[in-house]
Design a protein that fits this description.
By secondary structure, the chain is an alpha+beta fold. It folds into two domains: about 100 residues, Immunoglobulin-like, CATH 2.60.40; about 120 residues, no CATH class. Helices cover about 25% and strands about 35% of the residues. The strands form four sheets. The chain has a five-stranded mixed sheet with strand order 2-9-8-4-6. Strands 1-3-7-5 form a four-stranded antiparallel sheet, with no helix packed on it. Strand 14 and strand 15 form a beta hairpin. Helix 1 packs antiparallel against helix 2 and helix 4 packs antiparallel against helix 5. The longest helix has 25 residues. The N and C termini lie far apart (about 60 Å).
Length: about 280
């Protein structure tokens, strides 16, 4: 439109067209200056996510701040990474740190190298988008896609031989009560003995006998094509989740390192980490 008004002004010599041309050019210059000031001095650091699963949106967080001035209409995304989505904030004032939450999505599981954070703004008129990339290197591990679990134990889930399971009276099962211990980070909250905890004034975990046959080791075949390996990892993750929900002891073999049998949410996170790295690292690394 600016070019058209400029050509018309040259051909006709109309002063009004010259005035409109000057206003349009001034708006372009003002937009560039104000958007540059809005991006200047911004500091960004990644806070990451609590858990990223392939083929579904997950919440990703950035912490942003600036020492002087104000910023408006900012959007944040990951530059050069196979992640779709962004976060957005209306206003950032000087001297304060705000957390921006964005909804991202990854197409497949595995480690994703994050190299830079792209900060963009369309301030002040919304006609142009100006951006800059803040270089920061991090690693995001995307877990296998979540799928429904199989109805029964598949062939790659085999009971752990009794001789390879630790002493059944070491606790962690569903049998008779052996002892009470203070709850530690990563322990399953379902093991809390609420009556004794109320009397002691602190959270106590029940240590019970293990029942025979509640330990499983899942095996992953890593010599599969890429798509089949991703599907296999999703199947094993679903099965592991089902077994852990039932209170079973679950381990993993054949992925990126062996995961010893265990229980609880922390064990599930270990299995998901190993499955995410499967195929990207040599087995046993």
């Amino acid at each position: 439109m600016t070019l058209g008004v400029g050509v018309a002004a040259l051909n006709t010599g109309n002063n009004l067209l010259y005035l409109v041309l000057g206003l349009l050019l001034s708006a372009i210059v003002a937009s560039g200056i104000l958007s540059e000031l809005s991006l200047r001095g911004i500091e960004v650091r990644r806070l990451g996510t609590d858990g990223a699963f392939a083929n579904e949106p997950f919440v990703f967080r950035w912490a942003i701040s600036r020492q002087k001035g104000w910023s408006f209409a900012l959007s944040f995304s990951e530059e050069g990474a196979p992640l779709v989505g962004e976060g957005w904030i209306n206003h950032l004032s000087a001297g304060s740190e705000q957390v921006v939450r964005g909804e991202l999505r990854a197409a497949r599981r595995g480690p994703v190298t994050l190299t830079g954070i792209k900060v963009s703004t369309s301030f002040p008129f919304g006609l142009f988008i100006k951006g800059r990339v803040i270089r920061q290197r991090d690693l995001l591990v995307v877990y296998p896609a979540r799928i429904p679990s199989s109805a029964s134990l598949p062939p790659h889930a085999r009971p752990k031989p009794v001789g390879e399971i630790s002493n059944p009276r070491q606790g962690g099962g569903n049998g008779d009560l052996l002892d009470l211990r203070e709850l530690s980070p990563g322990d399953d909250s379902r093991r809390i003995h609420w009556v004794k905890s109320a009397g002691a004034g602190k959270l106590l975990r029940a240590v019970r006998e293990r029942e025979e046959g509640d330990g499983f080791t899942l095996r992953l075949e890593t010599d599969l094509p890429s798509e089949r390996l991703d599907r296999r990892c999703s199947e094993i993750a679903a099965l592991a989740d089902r077994l852990l929900q039932r209170g079973c002891e679950v381990g993993l073999e054949g992925a990126a390192g062996e995961v010893r049998p265990g229980r609880g949410p922390l064990q599930q996170r270990r299995i998901l980490e190993a499955l995410a790295w499967a195929g990207f690292l040599p087995a046993g690394k």
